[in-house]
Amino acid sequence: MGYLNNQVVTVDAILTKKGRELMARGDGSFNITQFALSDDEVDYTLYNPNHPSGSAYYGEAIENMPLLEAFPDETQMMKYKLVSLNRGTSTMPTLSVPTDININNGVADTITPQTVNYLNSNGPENSGYQFTISDVRVFGSFVGSGLETTDAAIALTNSNSQAVITNGTATSQTVIGYSCNVVGTNVPTLFASAPTLYATLTVIGLDSGARAQIPVFITNKSTVTKTT
Question: Can you give the pTM of this predicted structure?
Fold first, then answer.
C-alpha cells in the first residue's frame, strides 16, 4: 500500500482476487457491468469557510490530502461509497439488520434488511441489497432472494457455481436480493478444531450505498439419540 501523487489526475485500477480468477478462466465471465466511487480518504471537517484567502481556498486542505493506492481488501477499501441523495437530506441512510446471525449447524435463517432515512422513507430498496459472506464455508446454502432474474443476479449465480471451494480455504461469496437465505453448514470437519465457526456478513444497499456488517456464529450442536 502507498500514496498517489495528488498533483496529477491518476486512475489506479487493480483486480480483486475474484476478478483475477474470472479473467484467468478466459471464457468471457470477466465482464465489468458496474462501478462505484468512494471518498474514504477525505476528512470533510477540514473544509474551512473562514480561510483568510477567500472562498477559492475553503477546500484547500481537503484537496491536498494524500490518496491511497488501490488495494483488494473489501474490509478496508471503499467503505464509504458516494451516493445521490435528495437536496436537503440531513441524515445519511443506514441499514436495519440483525445484530448477529447465531444459529446451529443445519438451521436455516433469513436476513431481510430495511433501509432507514433513504428518500424520506424507511423500507426495502428498489434495487435490493448485496450480501457478501467472508467465508462461505460456514453456510451449507447461501442464496439471495427476490432478484433472481436480473442480469446482475444471473452473473453472480453463474460465477458462484464455478467457484472452487475447499474445506481448507476461506473464500468469500456475494449474492444479491431483497433478502438472503442461509443454512448453517453441516460439514463435520469444519468443526474439528472448534465447536463454533465465525465469519462476517457485509450488507450493502444497492441504491443508497448504506452498509452494515453482521457477525456470524455457526455452532455445532450434537444430536444425542436415546435408545430404550
Answer: 0.68
